[in-house]
Design goal:
By secondary structure, the protein is an alpha+beta fold. The chain contains one helix and four strands.
């Protein structure tokens, strides 16, 4: 996949650990992290929205490590 197909998250800093997003069609969202760009997660807009909503409301806080 060409570099131009990926958009860097506006929440990523100028350093490492940047999140990149690609949406090649309306049914697919691809995510990758700058440290391991060959590892690509694929999801749907509905599933990603549910994950983000759960994180924002604290439903995933119990998974955090100290």
């Amino acid at each position: 996949m060409a570099t131009r197909d990926w958009q860097k998250s506006s929440y990523s800093s100028a350093g490492n650990a940047c999140l990149y997003v690609s949406a090649p069609d309306n049914a697919t969202i691809r995510l990758r992290e700058s440290d391991e760009p060959e590892t690509i997660l694929t999801t749907t807009p509905t599933t990603l929205s549910a994950l983000i909503r759960s994180a924002k409301t604290g439903q995933l806080d119990h998974l955090a490590t100290a």
